[in-house]
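Complex record, two chains
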Amino acid sequence: MSVFVAYRKEWLELIRTHRLLIVAIVLVFFGLTSPLLAKFTPEIITLIPGGEEISKIIPVPTVVDAIAQYVKNMGQFGIILALLLTMGAIAQEKDKGTAAMMLVKPLPRGAFLAAKFAGLASMFAISLAVAGIACYYYTLLLFEAMNILNWLVLNVLLFVYTLVFVALTLFCSTLTKSQAAAGGIALGLMVILGLIGAIPTLGKYLPGELIIWGTRLMQGGTTTSWTALGVSIGLIVVPLLAAWLIFERQEL
Amino acid sequence: MIAVRTEELRKVFGTIFALDGLNLSVEEGTVFGFLGPNGAGKTTTIRILTSLAHATSGQAWVLGKEVTTNRREIAQQIGFLPEEPAFYPWMTPREFLDYVGRVFGLQAAMRSTRTKELLALAGLEEAAKRRIGGFSRGMRQRLALAQALVNHPKVLFLDEPASALDPVGRKEVLDFIEQLRGQCTVFMSTHILADVERVCDTVGIINRGKLVTAAPREALLAQYAIPAFEVEVDAKTEAALVPWSEALRRVTWVTTISLQGLVARVIVNDVEAAKRELLASITQAGLILTRYEVVRPSLEDVFLQLVGQEEGQV
């Protein structure tokens, strides 16, 4: 019950502070421009001096290029937005005193934390959904229709991938009262995750593999990466549990 | 019944003892003034009692429940006003009070009624739809008090409720607290003696993390009363004031006498004898009296006396 009360406040905050709108606009912009950029890159290149020669060696763009562009944009901006919008989630409430003001009341700290995560997850789910629809529509106009089910799976995988960074950043935000410090620690963790992911034998089990899996699916591939999905869910659940255990014992 | 109790409460930050074996007991229904200089341990005590901080050792109870193991139950029955109340600036006061009502599990109809009542009590009806972010400090403080009352708390913790306010704001907040007398136990920390003197019926003085004394205000004032009389005479008889004071100095029940203009302050060692003989001596000396007063000690006198003793012991 308490978690719904806290979630209602988080949802109102997302709307009133225009965070939901901003994230949706950013992701929809890149969702729309991905197929556009893929389609018109060769033509854009012809506009630069000597570009005509270069454009001759660029293959004719296909739907695969649009998808690749979309996945790259969503992956990058998903991480950036997850970091920026999550680093202050708990830290700022502790620093300003609103956490103390509310948690002195019968609002469990676990519910407070869960509502934060649920609010952020809702924001990314809605924004990714709208961006996905926008990209699908433009790809249809500029290229051809894509497999809707596979497109849905790709976006779910992108969503899970983003949530990993939301959970990690939320954990960091619980550790400290400074959102800058939380952001710094989270960035450090992301760099470590990225470096481990660059090792081929380990990378295929990490969240980055979800994007590769989704792209592969859109190209007609059938190889799955369930382990990477399991690890990613683990990388969401474990930081959240750790954050809860730490937050329960923390002085406010 | 005891509303708040602590036993050998200690809180250590590195090498600093914020609380050093605090033993405290507050009767239910009182307006308890928790008085002490800055850094005495007042806020730390409230933070432990409201479960925002953990004691290094010792125990604390609120409404008979130990604070570390009954956080949720206690939270249902207390109200808390922090020293610097914080709000979500994008919310309106109506939304904030409604949110607090939801946290306490109040039904929609009850929430709506309570929100209206508290907005009226805090004088924020006209600002009910404005964003809190644009509120003045006084408005925020009144809203903070209102949110602490949403659940009709049995114990209300107020941490320096009026310290940051201008005289008008201070009066409003103290009037507000005065209205709560008899409705709940108020545990109010402050370093402002006048606030305690005005609204509190029981006083606890804390210094360096230890309770120096705790007693009903009047008992405390009586216990530490300075037996003094003040006499003010008419300017026409000023010349007779010095000879009278010299003569009085030799009387056995007089400890000291000091003159300041037309006012004589007489400290005595036998109040009853002074009451019988002082007026007579004034008449005999030919002084025309314009004021005669048995000096009532202020809480400030008591505070300085007690805290001064403590400092002297260190």
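Note: The radius of gyration of chain A is 20 Å.
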